[in-house]
Specification:
3-stranded mixed beta sheet; mainly alpha; single chain; 11 helices; 311 residues
Length: 311
């Protein structure tokens, strides 16, 4: 069915988070701080990893790629949201809206695969330590990153291929601060039930399969760690707790949205904020504060630059 000719909507109106000027100023102060901290924190992690030879390992290579994705995710909608706090009529072009949908699902899909890759890395390191360097070689790491981006882009294109052709002929108000796919689909001038099921199936399959793979991996790892020596197990538990915390905070809102994607409550808007604005901050906070190797590398990098400035 060709719907493209019926689409007369050239822009969408974003209703944002609140109509209150005071609340918008408050949100601007909070989210601009989160945004700057998130971007700088993830940039710092990438610099630290590539400047310290002690972090030249598969886990940190994958972590640096997650940081890169988080930088991208921080910039797909947050800068516009911050500007829109000072704009009365918040709009986005049809093309800009489709671009936001594409970028969000590409980044989220890619990060899911990378989190699974990091779980596999920890599985090999703890359950098969003697074969770690053989299995987790540079070639496999590059394959993991390439596959993660390929899956993310394909996942996003599969959504966009159907959404672009929908007939948008009247309603154009999106009750969010960015173009959220389920909210945009509901604006189409047709029965969208089939599209809703397709969206739920597509997104649900990738998120649920990745989440189950992570749960199984970490369950096996935790069982293995329990049988190790106390000194080795304490360090492993510290590393795993950081990984598991990121997984829970990343997949929690994601699974919630995919279970009830088209029945939105007022709290969903703020969960969207957490998922798109705050989630990229998890990586630098959790991995830098709970990882002794990263903290040590940061201090060495700082001392190196302080000494260079003194000289």
């Amino acid at each position: 069915m060709a719907h493209t000719n019926e689409s007369i909507v050239s822009e969408f109106v974003l209703l944002g988070l609140s109509n209150s000027w005071e609340l918008q100023l408050f949100f601007f102060a909070i989210f601009s701080t989160v945004y700057v901290t998130s971007v700088l924190g993830n940039v710092l992690i990438i610099i630290v990893i590539f400047s310290d030879s002690n972090l030249n390992s598969p886990m940190y290579f994958l972590l640096s790629n997650i940081s890169f994705i988080d930088i991208c995710q921080s910039n797909f909608a947050t800068p516009k949201m911050l500007v829109d706090f000072f704009v009365e009529h918040k709009t986005i072009s049809f093309e800009g809206c489709m671009a936001q949908i594409f970028l969000l699902h590409s980044f989220v899909g890619s990060e899911m695969i990378l989190l699974v890759a990091m779980a596999y890395d920890r599985f090999v390191a703890i359950c098969k330590p003697l074969h770690y360097s053989t299995i987790m070689n540079q070639k496999l790491c590059i394959i993991f990153v390439s596959v993660s981006w390929a899956v993310g882009v394909l996942h996003s294109v599969s959504h966009l291929a159907f959404t672009v052709g929908l007939p948008f002929c009247g309603p154009n108000e999106v009750d969010s601060f960015f173009c959220d796919l389920p909210l945009v689909i509901k604006l189409a001038c047709m029965d969208t039930y089939g599209m809703e099921v397709m969206t739920l199936t597509n997104s649900g399959l990738i998120s649920l399969s990745c989440f189950l793979a992570l749960i199984i991996s970490y369950a096996v790892i935790l069982i293995t760690v329990r049988h190790q020596s106390s000194s080795g197990s304490s360090k492993a538990f510290s590393t795993l707790s950081a990984h598991i915390t990121v997984v829970i905070l990343f997949f929690g809102p994601c699974i919630y949205f995919y279970i009830w994607p088209f029945s939105r409550l007022s709290v969903d808007k703020f969960l969207s904020v957490f998922y798109t604005v705050c989630t990229p901050l998890l990586n630098p906070i959790i991995y830098s504060l709970r990882n002794e190797d990263v903290k040590s590398a940061m201090w060495k990098l700082r001392n190196r630059h302080v000494n260079a400035w003194k000289n």
